[in-house]
Amino acid sequence: MTTTPDNPTTALPGRPPVVDLATWQTARDELLVREKAHTREGDALAAARRRLPMVEFDGTVDVVGPDGPVPFLDLFQGRDELVVYKHMWYDGAPHQGQCEGCTTTAWHLKDAVYLNARGVSFAILTTGRWDGVASYVEFMGYTQPWYSVRDVDAPVGDSMGSITCFLRDGDRVFLTCSTTGRGNEPVSGSFGLLDMTPYGRRGVGGQARGAGPRGAARAGSGARTRTGTPPGARPAAPCRSGPATARPPWSPSAGTATTTDGPSSSTCEPTPGTGADPIRRRSLTGAVTQL
């Protein structure tokens, strides 16, 4: 038996119909077949990804961290594998104006203890000058290792907005995998949880058109609800590579998005319905909140 919501005048468009438990279980079992096929295909893709060929490069190239220049090899911390997130950087922007999508990703990667336990180190790279990066890291309260790769060639530097994996064999270093755009989504566990909810991502983070209830994105205040948002990281559209077409989240005169020598080739999609990215500030309790 299927019924309409109790109060259709207040229910958001697209709200699921109300059914009895047996009907729900039948629909859930049908979807589970597709979910299991999706999982198996994901396993096959992951296996193929691990079999990609490698590119060897000079691991002695310097990156700049809190202790000054160090060879890229040091980022492995003695382990065999390294995962980095390449965080976009806007020169001249205030802390509140840095990339929203990258902020979301970095916030989900605050602790690499489980990676470390499996022989994988983690670091965040960006093209900002170290003095500005250090100030931003302190403002956000990040504890991950951050390094400036300004003026460093690919695959360590250059285009930002990606997750990149490296392998070490003694003093030899290899690029093994890199992904950007929606390929970064596995890092942001909140997206996966939102995908399980009736209203999904509420119009952000790459959710396909028509994949969630229409109108849900504008429920409450603005295009996205601010309730329950992790400090400093309101869900955002993920970074993507390509021409820098998105407007920076601050006054055009405040700065430009840069990589090593000019406008970044990786941009973040603007928040639907809001224009500029949200402004973050320190609250009296020290947490990063949003206006």
How would you describe this structure in keywords?
disordered C terminus, globular, alpha+beta
Summarize the structure.
This protein is an alpha+beta fold.
Q: Helix-strand pattern, N to C?
A: EEHEEEEEHHEHEEEHEEEEE
CATH architecture type: 3-Layer(aba) Sandwich
Give the helix tally.
Answer: 5
Low-pLDDT stretches: 213-238, 240-267, 269-291
Q: What is the averaged pLDDT score?
A: 77
Number of domains: 1
Strand content: 15-25%
CATH class: Alpha Beta
Radius of gyration: 21 Å
Task: Report the CATH superfamily.
Answer: Glutaredoxin
Q: Which class best fits the helix and strand makeup? A: alpha+beta
Largest sheet: 6 strands, mixed
Number of strand elements: 16
Q: What is the helix fraction of residues, given as a range?
A: 10-25%
Give the spatial strand order of the biggest sheet. Answer: 3-11-10-6-8-9
Task: Give a written overview of the molecule.
- By secondary structure, the chain is α+β, with helices and mostly antiparallel strands.
- It has a single domain (55-209, 227-291), classed as Glutaredoxin, CATH 3.40.30.10.
- 21% of the residues lie in helices and 23% in strands.
- The protein has helices spanning 21-50, 100-107, 113-117, 130-140, 189-196, and strands at residues 2-3, 18-19, 55-57, 62-65, 68-71, 81-87, 89-91, 120-126, 146-148, 162-169, 172-180, 239-241, 256-258, 266-268, 280-282, 288-290.
- Strands 3-11-10-6-8-9 form a 6-stranded mixed β-sheet.
- It is globular, with a radius of gyration of 21 Å.
- Residues 213-238, 240-267 and 269-291 have low confidence and may be disordered.
